[in-house]
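About this split. The held-out portion is used to measure sequence recovery: a designer receives only the structure tokens and must propose an amino acid at every position. Recovery is the fraction of positions where the proposal matches the reference. Here is one held-out target exactly as it appears in the evaluation file.
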């Protein structure tokens, strides 16, 4: 049963690291020179980890002989960030010794046999559990390790360009001129009601400076509100942003937004008109699905 618990932890690892786009390697660390317990127990524990690792990764894992903990073998998990740098965050350790040392037992569904004869005074208590009882196995596991260290690895992994669902700066709305400030504020309220992180820039800076500031702040989306945005300006904005959403007089009248996709040059000059409600639904779905790519 302990092997099946380990296999479940591998699924947990895959779901957590896959969510952030990490790849990872497995290393099996075996019995060190100084250890607790008997060799038979160690061999059995190592065999269980080998079977679980082979089922999960085939032969794509490494053997690290003699580097296990003194109480049991372990699996060290190393992740690689976007720059191919490796960090060890997770570990899974199989511990048969702690339950023995602390005399841990649990009741089973099996019927207990007749109680053994009373021990003589001074006779040592046997290591095996009593009738109808069994010895548990302790699995030590850490998935992300130190939370603060993991956040630092994440920050470098994404280079500040966070996926939409975890980004602290999801949307920036920029007006082309003061006449559309009221619509910008209305859009902000609508998107805030959708539980999205939305900022607006109503400062007196030029449009180019506002967009550049948003780019440096790594906003996932910038909404430019106004009656007209030149193709040249749209192109310059899309080169650093996944999407640029333009809201002008026509968009305000039809309750829609104009989306320019950085990865689709055909949308840079004019963009794609999308109803506001549809854009909101796509943004909410993008956040809910926790996708790494900011594609609506």
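Reference sequence for scoring:
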């Amino acid at each position: 049963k302990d092997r099946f618990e380990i296999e479940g932890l591998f699924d947990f690892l895959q779901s957590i690291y896959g969510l952030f786009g990490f790849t990872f390697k497995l290393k099996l660390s075996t019995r060190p020179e100084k250890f607790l317990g008997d060799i038979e127990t160690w061999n059995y524990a190592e065999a269980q980890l080998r079977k679980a690792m082979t089922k999960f990764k085939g032969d794509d894992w490494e053997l690290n002989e003699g580097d296990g903990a003194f109480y049991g073998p372990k699996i060290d998990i190393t992740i690689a960030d976007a720059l191919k740098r490796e960090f060890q965050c997770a570990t899974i350790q199989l511990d048969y010794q702690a339950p023995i040392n602390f005399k841990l037992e649990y009741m089973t569904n099996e019927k207990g046999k007749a109680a053994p004869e009373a021990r003589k005074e001074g006779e040592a208590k046997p290591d095996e559990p009593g009738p109808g009882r069994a010895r548990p196995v302790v699995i030590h596991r850490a998935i992300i390790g130190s939370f603060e260290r993991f956040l630092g690895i994440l920050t470098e992994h994404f280079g500040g360009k966070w996926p939409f669902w975890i980004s602290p700066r999801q949307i920036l709305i920029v007006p082309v001129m003061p006449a559309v400030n009221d619509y910008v504020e209305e859009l902000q309220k609508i998107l805030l009601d959708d539980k999205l992180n939305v900022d607006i820039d109503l400062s007196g800076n030029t449009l180019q400076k506002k967009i550049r500031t948003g780019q440096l702040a790594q906003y996932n989306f910038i909404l430019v509100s106004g009656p007209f945005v030149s193709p040249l300006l749209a192109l310059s904005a899309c080169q650093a942003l996944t999407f640029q959403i333009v809201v002008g007089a026509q968009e305000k009248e039809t309750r829609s937004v104009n989306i320019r996709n950085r990865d689709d040059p055909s949308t840079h000059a004019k963009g794609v008109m999308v109803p506001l409600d549809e854009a909101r639904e796509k943004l909410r779905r993008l956040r809910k699905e926790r996708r790494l790519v900011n594609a609506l």
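Annotator remark: The chain has a mean pLDDT of 80.
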